[in-house]
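Structure tokens please, single chain.
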Amino acid sequence: MKQPEKEVKGIEADKEEKEIKEERIRSIAISYYSRKDVLSAIYGFSNKREIVPRYYEGFGKRPDILQYPSDIFSMAKRGATSFHCSEELWNDPLQLAIGLTQNKLNELRAGWDLIIDIDCKWIYYSKKATQAIIQVLNNHGVKNVGIKFSGNKGFHIIIPWNSFPKDFGGEKTSDKFPEYPRAVINYIKEKSRKYLEKAISDTEQDFKKVKGLIGVKCESCNNLAVENYQINLRCSSCYPPYIESFKTSTKDYKKRKCPNCRKTLEEVSSKAYYYCARCNLDSIKNKSNFNEEIESVDIFEVLGLDVLLVSPRH
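Here you go.
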């Protein structure tokens, strides 16, 4: 059965538009990566890093490196539109492979940069989050910080490997990846909180309609608690009646049966409560720790810090 002529023309028009867009992007990339200052900057930064070109249809092979500045322009002429580098530094990136043991990775790893990825939904708050983090770093005497706009609504903050001690607590810092950078980022998140809360205190209404940003706060750690339920069940067929209580994260739980008569238990009552996994506290036993009358903003969701960015061979 043939497609309608109008539909066929629409598909062909979309295809032509995509081809024009792709050709335009390739043309811009070739123009950009022909600049000597760009080649010099990328090549200089690529030392000891795994470098992967991003083509219009996908990424290039891994592992890969840049041997010469001219490699960048050559790949751009073959369709590369951007270049991605590892946050880890390697003695020989070409020895990297899938399935290497942790000991082998530690042997190859020469160090790592700390990359903080701010991936906020709003550019205004991305800027505020970046400023808050820079303030924390300045308070700790960290001045060698790089900032890069990620191209959408976020920023990348980089603290280079040379800023870190090579040994800490009797262990090589280069071997403590991703443990150390994740710990540092979590620390920075906590310290950034007061600056970001102050920055958005007058504009919290922006978040009221966004699901997952507003909730009841745990007073111990200032993170949002999750709403759980305590369910009470009863079997009216047995005497004395069998009674069972359990906690769940949803009201749509699987029906349970009486262990004595195998009949379905009846729900007597259900009660919502708040639980903080970080502190292992709930509002049933620690009611004063959760002020249910006050809605709070999930400050870290607004901050948009991505700890998962800190992962092996990212």
